[in-house]
Structure formats: C-alpha cells, structure tokens
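Much of our argument rests on the idea that a fold can be written as discrete symbols. In the encoding step, the backbone of a single protein was reduced to a row of integers, each denoting a local shape. We regard such an encoding as a compact summary of how the chain folds. The record that follows shows the chain in one-letter code together with its fold in token form:
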Amino acid sequence: MTATPSPDHAPRQRWLGVLARAPLDFLEQHLGPLAKGAHQWLRPAETGLVMVRARAGGTGQRFNLGEATVTRCVVRPDAALTGSRQVGVGYVLGCSHRQALLVALADALLQESALHAHWHAVLIAPLAQMQAQASAQQRVQTQSTRVEFFTVARETGSDRGDEDAP
C-alpha cells in the first residue's frame, strides 16, 4: 500500500522524482566534479528488479504489469568537497551506477539547509521545467493522434427499436 507522504517528506520526494528522471549528461555537467571525492558508501550502487504495478484503465483494479531494472545507492558525501554530511539516496531506472551516485549526491546536497537554495536553483528548477515541457509536448502529440471511435446502431427495418428481434 502507498501511504500519503507526511508534509516533511513531500519536498524530498518531489526532488528525488525529478532527479530520478534527469538525463545523465545534465547530472554529470553539474555534479561530475563532486563525484570524485572520498565518499562513504553506505550501500554501493547495485542493480536489481522491481515489480511495476498498473491499474486497468488507469483507475481499475491493480495488476502486475512487469519488472523494471532499477539501480540504487546510498552515500554520505565527502564533506570537505561538498560541504554536506547528509546521507543521500539515489534510485534510477536502468543500470547506470554513475547516475545513481549523482542522484544520491544531489539528494545529500539538497538536504543541507545551507546548500539547498543553490542546488535547487541549479538542478531541480531547470530539470522540473524541462520535464514539464517534455510532458506537455507528449500530451500534444498524443492528443493529435487521438482517434474517436463510435458505433452505429444496426438498422433492422422495424419501428420497435429492438435490434435483436426476429
């Protein structure tokens, strides 16, 4: 079951969601130099499978759709290099250990109150905007290819309206 997040965790869940969908080259550009430090690996990057669940029609009964590859790690950044001693977690779809590390570093930096505003402006704001634009483009493209299906009632020649009447 999915519980409603407490208000304290909601901002972190939002930025982790944005970071999980971030392209590796964007993360590398902004966080690559910080990844070279002597970080303390609490859980080294590892790849595994998770079950993806869906709902029939988007609102119906849940069912197991299939499995997806996910890479995760937990790291405490090198404080001398990053200025943060928070523990960061990184989860990404796919097999990129590097991307999971960069997401975990970003998570740790964003948890540090003195660094939060800077890293939110550098990472989260532009990524969220890029992702919103991509989502809007996808909606427009999907809407442009939408097909309306309709049914035409069979005419039987009777005035009763009973289509199945003999």
